[in-house]
Structure formats: structure tokens, C-alpha cells
């Protein structure tokens, strides 16, 4: 099936479709401004329909990197119909087969650009602006698709059948159990979100907690939640940069923070955690990592889309860089656990919630923001499922201590001795 003759892109798009069909068979119908359209595969009914609204949308299809397709969608040059899981699968297949930017070249260029501009990144003002962009969309928006505690990080599905809410509480308990948090100990949570971890640490483990965030919305709601729980004497929420914390703490948690500090700042970041740990203290870093040993971006321009629209200045280190910079920052890594499968499942839950609440979410944010988050959630799910990115929890303490103070096994992490 071909485009109608009235389309100014008839010959170009038809040639592109013929060339693409020779390499793959996808259940996609492409339409120019609602016309009859053309098929990119053999099927009775399409799983995905792509409506090309203008020349920019057509250009994105002709060189379909994830970055180009994502930009065309969020900017309204392309419309798509189909389940979000089918849409992201088709986008990857088009990007892989459609002649987009060479992934090796893109990764090399990305690293070169990062080296040039990295020194200008991650000042306190820049980090505050980046956090504001991502996290201050609105509390009501996040509340619609997160769990009731509003935990915005990888959950822990111990069995695999847990609800999202159960898995998020298990994640927090898993972290606090790994750290062996005891009543009366002080705990700093760097990037505390809406306060779920510090609330749980105080309520169940008896800790005295400080949670810090750069998000005004998170600060206000977390403070309100502390007050509602009657924990003002044990939990303090601060609107504060991690570089400005001066006290020492028995335990430190960093959940979803190292992605924001920048690759060049990892060693100084871990040095600050080292300096803030009291003698005998323990810390846990929970962060997304690249699966590329050279810290390159994800394939087919997915990383560029995330940097442009979702996480400005976000940078993902390979776990080897996390461990080496952590060590150079004065910390001893004691245990590292991959939760890649867990984050794929977490994102699937978030994406399912997002799709179920789609119409209501459109009333909370503008169309562009809605489209960004819709593609971001399912795109990240795909990336975790296909080993493009991962997540590691690294348990650590100050380096140079006696081995006799280490536990003999990992049993203590699961409620054992």
C-alpha cells in the first residue's frame, strides 16, 4: 500500500518503506496527515499506527534514531496509536534497521562532547535547576502513577508477585537491613524524595534522620508527611545541597543520586560521603549504571533523548567506575547487588499506571510533558530489560578498617545474624 499521490513526500517515503520492508517486517501503518497510508509489514491490522503530521515528522522517519523519533513525538510532529509496549518495540526496531546515526560514532561523539563541557556542569545552581525541571512537575502528577508512599526509585521484588507498594517498602527495608540500622543511630538520606525512606527508618528502625533534597515540591510534601506522622523529633527534612552538609552520621543512604552528580564528580561525591560518616559508619549507594564499560550512552540515541527532555545533565557510570571512584573517595565497597530485573519490573508498573491514568494525567500537565514521561517510562523499561542499563546497590564503609569487623556472610542482609 502506498501513500496518496497528493503527498509531497510520496516518492521519498514510499522508497524508504520499500527499503525498510526488505530488512524487517513490522506491523506498522504509516499515514501522511490521516491518509490511507502504507504498510511496513505483512499484517491484517497494525499494532502501531504512525501519523506523520508535517515535514519534521517525515524527516524523523527517514533517519529514525530514538532521539529523532522521540523528539518528533513529544514536539507533536508524529502521533502514534497502539499500546505503549508495542510503540517502544517498534521504535527500537525502526532505529536499528532504518539507517539512523551510527551507534559507535554517536557514543564516541558523546564522550568527546562530555569531556569538553563537563567542567562547566554540576554547579550548585545548575544541579538545582536540573532537579527542579524533573522533580517539580507537580506532586499530584507523580502521585497518580507512583505507589502511595511515592518512592521514585527501583523497587525490590523479593518473590516477584509483590504489588508495587509492597515491593517499594521491601526495597527500603532491604536497604536499611543491609546497613544494620539500629535505634538511636543517625541517618542521612541524600536525595530523600518525598520522605519515604527516612519515615520508615524512624518508624521501624528507630533512627534519627535527616533527609535532603533540592526539590521544593518534595521538601514541602516530605515535611508535611513528617508532621502528619508525628516524627518531628526524629526526622528533619532540609532543602539542601549534599555539598553543604556538615554533620557526621552513623548511616548514609544515597538512592538515585549518583546519576545526577556527573561522572567527574563521582570521586568528590564519595569523598563527601566518607567525610560525613562517623567512625564505624556504613553507607549504601543505590544508582542506575551504564552497561557500557566506557560509560557510553544507550544505543540509537536513547541517551540523548533522556538528556534533552528528561534528566538534564544526568550521566550514567559503569559499575566499574562507581567502584573505582568510591574506593578513591576513601570508601571500601563491601557488597554489590544488581537489581536490573527489579527496575524493569518497577518501570513496567509505573508505565502501566501511567497508561491507566492517561486522560487524568493530561489534565495535570501540558501535552508535551505528558508525552515525554509516557515515552521515558516505557523506554527505560525496555533499556533495563535488554541490558542497556542496570542498577547496583553498593554497601560500603570507610576504607582501611580491620577485616574482623566485617560480617562473615550476607545472611544479615536478609534478617539473619
TrEMBL record:
<dbReference type="InterPro" id="IPR029063">
    <property type="entry name" value="SAM-dependent_MTases_sf"/>
</dbReference>
<keyword id="KW-0443">Lipid metabolism</keyword>
<keyword id="KW-0808">Transferase</keyword>
<dbReference type="InterPro" id="IPR003333">
    <property type="entry name" value="CMAS"/>
</dbReference>
<dbReference type="GO" id="GO:0032259">
    <property type="term" value="P:methylation"/>
</dbReference>
<dbReference type="InterPro" id="IPR057206">
    <property type="entry name" value="DUF7884"/>
</dbReference>
<keyword id="KW-0949">S-adenosyl-L-methionine</keyword>
<dbReference type="Pfam" id="PF02353">
    <property type="entry name" value="CMAS"/>
</dbReference>
<feature type="domain" description="DUF7884">
    <location>
        <begin position="17"/>
        <end position="94"/>
    </location>
</feature>
<dbReference type="GO" id="GO:0008168">
    <property type="term" value="F:methyltransferase activity"/>
</dbReference>
<keyword id="KW-0489">Methyltransferase</keyword>
<dbReference type="Pfam" id="PF25371">
    <property type="entry name" value="DUF7884"/>
</dbReference>
<comment type="similarity">
    <text>Belongs to the CFA/CMAS family.</text>
</comment>
<dbReference type="InterPro" id="IPR050723">
    <property type="entry name" value="CFA/CMAS"/>
</dbReference>
<protein>
    <submittedName>
        <fullName>Class I SAM-dependent methyltransferase</fullName>
        <ecNumber>2.1.1.-</ecNumber>
    </submittedName>
</protein>
Amino acid at each position: 500500500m502506498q501513500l496518496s499521490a497528493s503527498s509531497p513526500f510520496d516518492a521519498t517515503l514510499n522508497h524508504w518503506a520499500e527499503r525498510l520492508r526488505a530488512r524487517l517486517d513490522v506491523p506498522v501503518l504509516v499515514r501522511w496527515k490521516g491518509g490511507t497510508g502504507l504498510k511496513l509489514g505483512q499484517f491484517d491490522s497494525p499494532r502501531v499506527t504512525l501519523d506523520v503530521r508535517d515535514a519534521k515528522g517525515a524527516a524523523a522517519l527517514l533517519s529514525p534514531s530514538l532521539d529523532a523519533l522521540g523528539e518528533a513525538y513529544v514536539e507533536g510532529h508524529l502521533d502514534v496509536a497502539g499500546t505503549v509496549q508495542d510503540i517502544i518495540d517498534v521504535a527500537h526496531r525502526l532505529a536499528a534497521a532504518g539507517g539512523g546515526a551510527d551507534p559507535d560514532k554517536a557514543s564516541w561523539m558523546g564522550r568527546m562532547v562530555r569531556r569538553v563541557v563537563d567542567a562547566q556542569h554540576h554547579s550548585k545552581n545548575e544541579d538545582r535547576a536540573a532537579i527542579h525541571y524533573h522533580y517539580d512537575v507537580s506532586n499530584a502528577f507523580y502521585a497518580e502513577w507512583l505507589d502511595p508512599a511515592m518512592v521514585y526509585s527501583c523497587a525490590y521484588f523479593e518473590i516477584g508477585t509483590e504489588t508495587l507498594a509492597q515491593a517499594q517498602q521491601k526495597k527500603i527495608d532491604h536497604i536499611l537491613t543491609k546497613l544494620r540500622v539500629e535505634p538511636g543511630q543517625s541517618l542521612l538520606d541524600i536525595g530523600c524524595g518525598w520522605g519515604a525512606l527516612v519515615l520508615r527508618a524512624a518508624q521501624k528502625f528507630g533512627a534519627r534522620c535527616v533527609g535532603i533534597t533540592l526539590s521544593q515540591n518534595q521538601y514541602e510534601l516530605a515535611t508535611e508527611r513528617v508532621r502528619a506522622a508525628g516524627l518531628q523529633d526524629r526526622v528533619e527534612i532540609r532543602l539542601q545541597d549534599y555539598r553543604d552538609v556538615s554533620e557526621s552520621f552513623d548511616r548514609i543512604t544515597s538512592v538515585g543520586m549518583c546519576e545526577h552528580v556527573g561522572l567527574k564528580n563521582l570521586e568528590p561525591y564519595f569523598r563527601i560521603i566518607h567525610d560525613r560518616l562517623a567512625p564505624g559508619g556504613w553507607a549504601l549507594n543505590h544508582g542506575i549504571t551504564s552497561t557500557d564499560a566506557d560509560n557510553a550512552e544507550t544505543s540509537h540515541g536513547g541517551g540523548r533523548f533522556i538528556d534533552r527532555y528528561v534528566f538534564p545533565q544526568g550521566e550514567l557510570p559503569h559499575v566499574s567506575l562507581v567502584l573505582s571512584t568510591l574506593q578513591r573517595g576513601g570508601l571500601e565497597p563491601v557488597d554489590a547487588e544488581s537489581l536490573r530485573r527489579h527496575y524493569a519490573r518497577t518501570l513496567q508498573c509505573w508505565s502501566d499506571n501511567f497508561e491507566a491514568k492517561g486522560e487524568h494525567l493530561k489534565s495535570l500537565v501540558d501535552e508535551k510533558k505528558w508525552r515525554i514521561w509516557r515515552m521515558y517510562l516505557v523506554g527505560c523499561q525496555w533499556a533495563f530489560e535488554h541490558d542497556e542499563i542496570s542498577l547496583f546497590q553498593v554497601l560500603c564503609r570507610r576504607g582501611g578498617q580491620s577485616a574482623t569487623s566485617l560480617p562473615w556472610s550476607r545472611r544479615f542482609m536478609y534478617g539473619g545474624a
